């Protein structure tokens, strides 16, 4: 059962050395792209609350949850997707436009297994599945683009490992 209300307020918000702790996901899926059953990578972007830009789901990491629990919660609240969270991609520090303060973000890949029809921020946001190149083009935040690049490098490495060991997984990336 999905809670149809987003958490609000910052009374449980984590801070580290004055920086707000933020977590998020890069939701992704593979989609068959041609007759040879090649799979292409797609990522899910969401509109900002004001609807003027596109980004990956992210939000505050609160004191009553682990970072993966927070990332899953934020992704469900903002993007309305559920899936399998994978290993942390890294940390990025950035200056918040809204608060004129610094935040530290931790991003995770999320292999999407379910797209919900109803979710807490459905009326505030739009979802859009795109290839990697388009995501790089339209994503608002430089640090999210860096997280996406890290994710693609990881997948490329894993794909190469699979090829080297004879696992014939065929997928391609729409990189440029």
Tally of helical segments: 3
Helical content class: 10-25%
Q: What are the segments in which pLDDT stays under 50 over at least 5 consecutive residues?
A: none
Taken as a percent bin, the fraction of beta residues is 35-45%
Shape: globular
The biggest sheet amounts to: 10 strands, mixed
Q: How many whole angstroms does the radius of gyration measure?
A: 16 Å
Q: Strand pairing plus helix content: what structural class?
A: alpha+beta
Instruction: State the distance separating the first and last CA atoms.
Output: 39 Å
Q: Indicate the mean pLDDT.
A: 86
Return the string of H and E elements. Answer: EEEEEHEEEEHHE
What is the number of beta strands? 10
Task: Give an overview in words.
- Strands 1, 2, 3, 4, 5, 6, 7, 8, 9 and 10 form a ten-stranded mixed β-sheet that branches.
- Strand 2 (19-32) and strand 3 (39-47) form a beta hairpin.
- The mean pLDDT is 86.
- The protein has helices at 67-79, 132-138, 142-164; strands at residues 15-16, 19-32, 39-47, 54-55, 58-60, 81-85, 90-95, 102-115, 127-131, 171-172.
- The termini are far apart.
- With 176 residues, the protein is α+β, with helices and mostly antiparallel strands.
């Amino acid at each position: 059962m999905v809670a149809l209300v987003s958490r609000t307020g910052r009374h449980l918000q984590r801070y580290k050395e004055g920086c707000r702790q933020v977590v998020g996901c890069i939701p992704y899926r593979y989609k068959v792209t041609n007759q040879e059953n090649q799979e292409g990578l797609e990522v899910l972007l969401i509109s900002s609350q004001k609807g003027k830009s596109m980004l990956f789901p992210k939000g505050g990491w609160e004191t009553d949850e682990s970072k993966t629990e927070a990332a899953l919660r934020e992704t469900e609240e903002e993007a309305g997707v559920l899936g399998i969270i994978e290993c942390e991609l890294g940390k990025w520090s950035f200056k918040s436009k809204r608060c004129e303060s610094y935040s530290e973000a931790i991003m995770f890949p999320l292999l999407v297994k379910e797209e919900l029809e109803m979710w807490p921020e459905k009326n505030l946001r739009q979802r859009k599945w795109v290839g990697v190149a388009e995501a790089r083009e339209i994503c608002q935040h430089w640090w999210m683009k860096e997280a996406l690049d890290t994710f693609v490098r990881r997948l490329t490495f894993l794909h190469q490992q699979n090829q080297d060991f004879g696992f014939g997984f065929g997928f391609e990336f729409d990189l440029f």
